[in-house]
């Protein structure tokens, strides 16, 4: 497996020289400064790759080449957006970058209600709190039908939280929900979010799937021609949110994605944390089910609560059996190697991590600390080494 590290370029306080000390040799990055839907210029890609290579790394995965909201909604003349996406793919391939991670989550990327939830020992983690999400949807956003998405006990606690919350508490909740990923994308205030949600009116699961099918039909043939692999990232959280449908949340959804365009170029980013946040998902079993089309892996863990809340756990301490999952990935690598594939190794990165020790004094991207991910990488490296030696 290829040990990799997510790096946000000039947006990232963590430097390539620091990453080098983790032992990782692959970099996962994107041109986050380019607005969604615009072409990634070949010379800009080349400059980013040269910078990565000069620091002693390989650029192993693009994460992400974003899908424009118009494509997800299926609105307007999409000819130019699809052409731009294909051109960006061609420019990446011309520079030797052949794996693209992307997602098809409507409007928001990963969503949390707390970016600094305390964990024992003094560290902090990302957390999705069902009560606070309900308070946001029902009492701050005022979304119609939001109450139908939460059980009565959660709604009662949400009302109590909202009543005692200060204006600063409510602003912090909005900021956490909007945090998502850094880059050139929209962040909303309450009014702006309401307006953005209205643009999705009438788009249910079937409509979104139809729009996703069109995306695959438009871009997978180009990926095949270029020798590229696309790998969709599961929804995070893996459930409908803000009244928006989510269609990449479980094993059946992944089966649909792979069947929608049956090609080696159409694959999966196996994110154990995103899938692991849904109590119905057996992550190692899902990984085994789609193993042949896993092109990239995010290895992290979550601890779930009965009310639908969850938080980032240490990599070997959450609800997912990370040893069993790693065994599945190594078995798939061995199958590819035995089949004579020179590209049998699966790139993975230690995803998220606790903010701990001296990282608590640094202004880092939420969920992407140095030390917490280094701990995760070290633990995963140990599991991989032990399993590789039988």
Keywords:
single chain, 390 residues, alpha/beta, TIM Barrel, eight-stranded parallel beta barrel, four-stranded antiparallel β-sheet, 14 helices, 12 strands, globular
What would your notes on this structure say?
The strands form two sheets. Strands 1-2-3-4-7-8-9-12 form an eight-stranded parallel β-barrel, surrounded by four helices. Helix 4 packs parallel to helix 9, helix 5 (about 130-140) crosses helix 6 and helix 12 packs parallel to helix 13. It has a single domain, classed as Divalent-metal-dependent TIM barrel enzymes (TIM Barrel, Alpha-Beta Barrel), CATH 3.20.20.150. The model has no long low-confidence stretch (mean pLDDT about 95). The longest helix is centred in the middle third of the chain and has 22 residues, at about 205-225. It is α/β, with parallel strands linked by helices. It has 14 helices and twelve strands. The chain is globular, with a radius of gyration of 20 Å. Helix 10 (about 250-260) links the parallel strand 7 and strand 8 (about 265-270).
In whole angstroms, how far apart are the ends?
16 Å
Rounded radius of gyration (Å): 20 Å
Counting DSSP H or I runs of 4 or more residues, the number of helices is 14
Query: Could you give me the name of the CATH homologous superfamily?
Result: Divalent-metal-dependent TIM barrel enzymes
How many separate domains make up the residues?
1
Strand residue percentage:
5-15%
In CATH's first tier, which class applies? Alpha Beta
Q: Order of helices and strands, N to C?
A: EHEHEHHEEEHHHHHEHEHHEEEHEH
CATH architecture: Alpha-Beta Barrel
Described by its quaternary structure, the protein is single chain
- Globally, the shape reads globular
Taking all residues together, what is the mean pLDDT? 96
């Amino acid at each position: 497996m290829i040990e990799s590290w997510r790096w946000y370029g000039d947006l990232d306080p963590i430097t390539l020289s620091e990453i080098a000390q983790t032992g990782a040799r692959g970099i996962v990055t994107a041109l986050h400064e380019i607005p969604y839907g615009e072409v990634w210029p070949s010379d800009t890609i080349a400059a980013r790759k040269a910078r990565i290579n000069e620091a002693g790394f390989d650029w192993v995965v693009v994460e992400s080449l974003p899908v424009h909201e118009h494509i997800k909604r299926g609105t307007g003349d999409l000819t130019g957006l699809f052409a731009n996406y294909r051109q960006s793919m061609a420019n990446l391939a011309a520079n030797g970058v052949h794996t693209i991670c992307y997602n098809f989550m409507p409007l928001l990327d990963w969503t949390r209600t707390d970016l600094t939830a305390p964990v024992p020992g003094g560290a902090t983690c990302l957390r999705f709190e069902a009560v606070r999400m309900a308070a946001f949807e029902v009492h701050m956003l005022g979304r119609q039908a939001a109450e139908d998405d939460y059980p009565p006990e959660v709604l009662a606690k949400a009302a109590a939280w909202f009543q005692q919350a200060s204006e600063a508490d409510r602003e912090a909740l909005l900021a956490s929900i909007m945090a998502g990923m850094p880059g050139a994308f929209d962040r909303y205030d309450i009014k702006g979010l309401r307006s953005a949600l209205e643009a999705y009116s009438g788009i249910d699961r079937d409509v979104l799937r139809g729009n996703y099918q069109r995306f695959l039909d438009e871009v997978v043939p180009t990926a095949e021609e270029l020798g590229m692999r696309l790998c969709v990232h599961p929804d995070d959280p893996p459930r409908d949110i803000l009244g928006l449908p989510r269609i990449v949340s479980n094993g059946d959804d992944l089966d649909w994605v792979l069947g929608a365009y049956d090609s080696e170029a159409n694959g999966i980013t196996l994110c154990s944390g995103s899938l692991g946040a849904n109590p119905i998902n057996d992550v190692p079993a899902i990984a085994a089910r789609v193993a042949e089309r896993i092109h990239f892996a995010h290895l992290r863990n979550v601890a779930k609560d009965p009310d639908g809340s969850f938080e980032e756990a240490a990599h070997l301490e959450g609800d997912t059996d990370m040893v069993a999952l790693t065994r599945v990935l190594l078995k798939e690598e061995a199958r590819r190697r035995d089949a004579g594939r020179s590209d049998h190794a699966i790139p993975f990165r230690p995803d998220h991590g606790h903010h701990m020790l001296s990282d608590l004094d640094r202004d880092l991207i939420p969920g992407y600390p140095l030390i917490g991910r280094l701990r995760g990488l070290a633990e995963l490296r140990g599991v991989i080494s032990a399993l590789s030696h039988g």
